[in-house]
């Protein structure tokens, strides 16, 4: 499965962006992670393709929304009220299994990764 992420850019604090992750095949879970310079990779959100269950990191809850388009095999990350601390390279990932203790936080839960797309939020 190949994942193609897009939609990053340079915006001001308070602005919105929508990231897209187009998948070449079908997987059960799709997630977004982000990594800022000098920091470890951080879980952002995940969605289960069948059923649409979602999980969000506390830092983005209420501001970010993950969704999927079955017809396009694409997952979206709508990011509103962006903050400078949201600045990072955002990567999408896909896996098969949903469940277990904090499973979604572990990058090893995902088998496929797309390339990153840069999001920069200026103050």
Commentary on this structure:
By secondary structure, the chain is an all-beta fold. Helices cover 0% and strands 49% of the residues. The chain has no helices and eleven strands. The strands form two sheets. Strands 2, 4, 5, 6, 9, 10 and 11 form a seven-stranded mixed beta sheet that branches. A four-stranded antiparallel beta sheet has the order 1-3-8-7, with no helix packed on it. Strand 5 (42-48) and strand 6 form a beta hairpin. The chain is globular. It starts with a strand and ends with a strand. The model has no long low-confidence stretch (mean pLDDT 96).
Work out the helicity level.
under 10%
Note poorly predicted spans.
none
Number of strands: 11
Mean pLDDT: 96
Distance between the termini: 37 Å
What general outline do the C-alpha atoms trace?
globular
* Major pleated sheet: 7 strands, mixed
DSSP summary: helix tally: 0
Share in β-strands: over 45%
Q: Oligomeric status of the shown chains? A: single chain
For this entry, give a set of tags.
123 residues, mainly beta, 7-stranded mixed sheet, 11 strands, globular
Brief digest:
The protein has 123 residues and is mainly β. The chain is built from no helices and 11 strands.
Which helices and strands, and how do they pair?
Blueprint: E1 3-6, E2 9-12, E3 17-23, E4 29-35, E5 42-48, E6 54-56, E7 64-69, E8 74-79, E9 88-95, E10 112-113, E11 117-122
Parallel strand pairs: 2-11
Antiparallel strand pairs: 1-3, 3-8, 4-5, 4-9, 5-6, 7-8, 9-10, 9-11
């Amino acid at each position: 499965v190949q994942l193609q992420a897009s939609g990053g850019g340079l915006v001001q604090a308070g602005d919105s962006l929508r990231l897209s992750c187009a998948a070449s095949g079908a997987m059960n879970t799709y997630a977004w992670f982000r990594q800022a310079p000098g920091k470890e990779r951080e879980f952002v959100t995940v969605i289960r393709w069948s059923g649409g269950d979602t999980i969000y990191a506390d830092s983005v809850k209420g501001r970010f929304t993950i969704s999927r388009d079955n017809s396009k095999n694409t997952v979206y990350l709508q990011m509103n009220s962006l903050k400078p601390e949201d600045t990072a390279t955002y990567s999408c990932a896909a896996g098969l299994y949903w469940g277990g203790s904090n499973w979604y936080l572990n990058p090893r839960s995902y088998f496929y990764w797309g390339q990153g797309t840069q999001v920069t939020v200026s103050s």
